[in-house]
Amino acid sequence: MDIVVDNLSHRYGQTDVLDGITFELKGGEIVCIIGPSGCGKSTLLRFIGGLEQPTSGRILIAGSPPAGSLNPLTYIFQDFALLPWRTVEGNVSLVLEDHGIKGGKADAIIDDVLRRTKLSDFRKALPRQLSGGMKQRVAIARALSVNPAVMLMDEPLSALDSQTRELLLDDLIELWTRERFSACYVTHNLAEAVRLGHKIIVLSRRPGRIRQIVRIDMPLDERAGRIAELETTQRHLWNLMREEARAADMELSDVA
Ligand SMILES: Nc1ncnc2c1ncn2[C@@H]1O[C@H](COP(=O)(O)OP(=O)(O)OP(=O)(O)O)[C@@H](O)[C@H]1O
Asked: Taking every annotated instance into account, which residue ranges of this chain make up the domain ABC transporter (predicted)?
């Protein structure tokens, strides 16, 4: 399933937030969205997920979601959003229950996603017993359980320490290499963007406009070993963003 964001603009009251955003997310592709604070990255993700409607422009969906997809567009948030009183399997089964899936069928799906996210041994654990990285794995397992066409990931690693982030990045790449999923991935972290993105959409400060779409052809599973080559791209991204990031930062300081 492909998603086309077609000339999307949005304003909240008097504030222009996004302006003329057009790009394509192809099936099996990870598109990263970067840009200064407040430029509209999360807002754009909400439009793609259909949670809100833009002032103008369209989100077009081409093709069908994977067979058996319960929820074609599924979010993964920074704060994991787990129910603290439910075990790991209970958190995953919750979304299946929402779709009326119980018993043996639910167990088979839970087994599968916990195995894929290396959580099989933690099935009965409660969120408070898990590290931040493990909690985010549960959130990823829960997202995978609905067999989504596209995962909408809003800074999924930003609440984690740098070592855990690195481990989860490796896990995401391994997961993608085994079975290609599509994702729209919002991040502030340029190193993450160059490790994960097939395409990186660089937004200007608010109102967010596309400054550049940077494609990276290097296979995802080779990137960890070719960091030096990726650094050139990372520097290019930072050069595109630096002045605007500083201006956005000053703007936030003024408000405070
Ligand atoms: N529901 C809303 N009502 C009014 N204004 C909003 C709403 N949601 C977001 N905004 C404003 O829209 C702008 C873009 O917000 P958004 O959260 O999408 O930016 P962002 O790029 O994701 O920010 P950050 O990088 O800091 O997470 C901000 O100025 C924000 O205050």
From this structure: 3-230
Task: For the chain, list the domains and their CATH numbers.
Answer: 2-65+156-255 (3.40.50.300), 82-148 (no CATH)
CA distance 254 to 236: 28
Query: CB 208: neighbour CB atoms within 10 A?
Result: 28
Ligand 1 mean position, distance from CA 34 (Å): 14
Q: Has residue 256 got a pLDDT over 50?
A: no
Given a contact cutoff of 8 angstroms between Cβ atoms, the answer to whether 215 and 31 are in contact is no
Task: Give pTM, 2 decimals.
Answer: 0.91
Q: Considering only CA atoms, which residue is closest to atom 2 of ligand 1? A: 12
Determine if ligand 1 sits within 6 Å of the CB of residue 41. yes
Nearest-CA residue for ligand 1 atom 26 is 37
Task: Kindly tell me the burial class for residue 192, based on how many C-beta atoms sit within 10 Å of its own C-beta (0-12, 13-18, 19 or more).
Answer: buried
Least confidently predicted of 96-110, 138-152, 236-250: 236-250
